[in-house]
Design a protein that fits this description.
By secondary structure, this protein is α/β, with parallel strands linked by helices. The chain folds into two domains: about 200 residues, Periplasmic binding protein-like II (D-Maltodextrin-Binding Protein, domain 2), CATH 3.40.190; about 140 residues, D-Maltodextrin-Binding Protein, domain 2 (3-Layer(aba) Sandwich), CATH 3.40.190.10. The chain is built from 14 helices and twelve strands. Helix 3 links the parallel strand 1 and strand 2. Helix 4 packs parallel to helix 5 and helix 6 packs across helix 14. The radius of gyration is 22 Å and the shape is globular. The protein starts with 6 loop residues before the first helix and ends with a helix.
């Protein structure tokens, strides 16, 4: 499939690649994520933040409201928090950044490709790592600063049996699973579009090709650019059920009394809390070939034209602590980059997830998602 880039896209990609090279240590003159010649002490930051008296945050996670209450109680600083869909947040910051309008002081944003390519590289957002966290957060999560990780897994209805109904992603392309696999519409949530993009990454596509041979006993014959595209094509042609939310997906799959063995979806692991709260039958498949789902970050980033920059810095620091992250850590499926923040007893550590999940690559997504979306148009519209 021929790539189509305009001049702006090419410039963005070159800037993004350069940023990745610097982050990897490829240039001796690379700057630190934060350029503060004389960092404030924590007490000085608190005083400066309290003098500003307010902080404005745009967030893709609604639990920011609970964190805002804790922050206000601790520091006496008012918080104006707005919950937005990922594409709404990117468009809002783009508009504010391009016009110089005052809006958010910082954001909690997902969709790494667009965040890096359209917001960071155009200087609408800037990276900030609290001094107290520079020796705590693993360096690979500091630029851009990760606020949390989210995972989505293949999950099935286990009412009839707790044995995994499939252990290879190609099973979902067979007659047995026709119309029985659900996934949120990738045009309604960017991270799902990013997952579809990531399966076309050459090294992932090679794993998918090997999984095909493992499942069917023969080499894959391509009718598309690679095995990743081929798998996408196959699940859509096998009547993939597109949903409007992960909550609805979980409820549709997990409701009891369906009396069928084939019923599964790919959605956020945190929905397993519905097993108790909504009496659903849900179980993840942890041993899939070649992967069990995908993993993506939410970033905490300062607005370049922040009106309350110190309050924003203090709030970011707070969110990275065990206290600040508590609205998210009360359930499984959301993980702080701070290794000192405990996970739920029945959850799995990040070391487990990075071995079995496809990880979002912002640079690859930014460069290739348009091609994948064009491919998806053939099946969704």
């Amino acid at each position: 499939m021929k790539k189509r880039f305009n001049v702006l896209s090419i410039v963005m990609i070159l800037m993004l690649c350069a940023g990745s090279f610097i982050a990897a240590g490829g240039a001796e003159e690379a700057a630190e994520p934060i350029a503060e010649e004389m960092p404030m002490t924590h007490d000085e930051l608190v005083a400066a933040a309290q003098a500003e008296g307010k902080v404005v945050v745009y967030s893709v996670t609604s639990r920011i409201a609970n964190a805002a209450e804790g922050f206000k109680e601790k520091y006496g600083i008012e918080v104006e928090a707005t919950n937005l869909k990922d594409f709404e947040l990117i468009e809002k910051i783009s508009k504010e950044g391009s016009t110089g309008a005052v809006g958010a002081d910082f954001v909690l944003a997902q969709d790494g490709g667009r965040v890096m390519g359209e917001l960071i590289n155009l200087d609408y957002l800037t990276n900030y790592v609290p001094e107290s966290m520079k020796n705590v957060i693993p360096v690979e999560f500091q630029n851009p600063l990760v606020f949390s990780f989210i995972n989505k897994l293949f999950i099935f209805n286990n009412e009839m049996s707790t044995d995994s109904p499939f252990t290879n992603i190609w099973a979902l392309t067979t007659d047995e699973w026709k119309g029985n696999f659900q996934f949120k519409n990738p045009f309604q949530e960017s991270v799902n579009a990013n997952f579809m993009t990531m399966v076309t990454k050459p090294e992932i596509a090679d794993q998918i090709a090997a999984a095909y041979k493992d499942y069917f006993g023969k080499d894959i014959k391509l009718t598309t650019p690679n095995a990743g595209y081929e798998w996408i094509k196959a699940i859509f042609e096998n009547d993939l059920v597109l949903t409007t939310s992960d909550t609805k997906t979980a409820e549709s799959i997990g409701i009891k009394g369906q009396n069928k063995a084939q019923n599964a979806g790919l959605f956020v692991f945190s929905k397993l809390r519905y097993v108790e709260t909504k009496n659903l039958a849900l179980q993840p498949i942890m041993e899939m070939v070649p992967f069990s789902g995908f993993l993506y970050p939410i970033y905490a980033l300062l607005s370049t034209n922040a009106e309350h920059p110190n309050a924003a810095k203090l709030f970011i620091e707070y969110l990275l602590t065990e206290e600040g992250f508590s609205p998210w850590s009360t359930n499984m499926g959301t993980y702080s980059p701070n290794p000192n923040v405990a996970i739920q007893p029945k959850d799995y550590p990040m070391t487990t997830w990075v071995k079995i999940l496809v990880e979002e690559d912002p640079a690859f997504c930014f460069e290739n998602r348009a091609d994948v979306e064009e491919f998806l148009n053939e099946y969704i519209y």
